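Good morning C.,

I know you're traveling, so I'll keep this short. The sequence:
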Amino acid sequence: MPGRSLHQDYILISTLGLLIHSNIVVLQNKEIQMDNKLYKELVLKTESKDFDSISSRLKDKRALRLLHGSCGIATEAGELLDAMKKHIFYGKEIDTVNIVEEIGDLMWYSAILLDELGVEFEDVMDKNINKLRARYGDKFSEKSATVRNLDKEREILEK
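The tokens, ready to paste straight into the viewer:
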């Protein structure tokens, strides 16, 4: 399959017993045409269904605050992206008032996350800049953006 490695194909085959390529599924060494019913059946095999454990985790105040902040960030990021979509694809003027509002909303939800994690904005900013310095040095490059030392970056973030 284009864009996937043999290792990824092996993982897919070993976990689901299938390989999908151009709407043809190889399932237990048989080629089967993919359709909505088969797709749904295969999806449901990998759904997390331990609802008692999930329900238990939803009673955790920390998890709920982190979920609230995370959902809020996803929502506000979508609204920010929508403002840019309207400019790029619909020809609407860039609404800087709205963009600043969405950034403020992102910061509001970030503050909830940081409070729950016991972390200050300054700590996040410092770690982020140190990580970027390790990645790029003093200047951005496309190569550095794609060829990264994730272990080194993680080490910086864990300090």
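Safe travels,
E.
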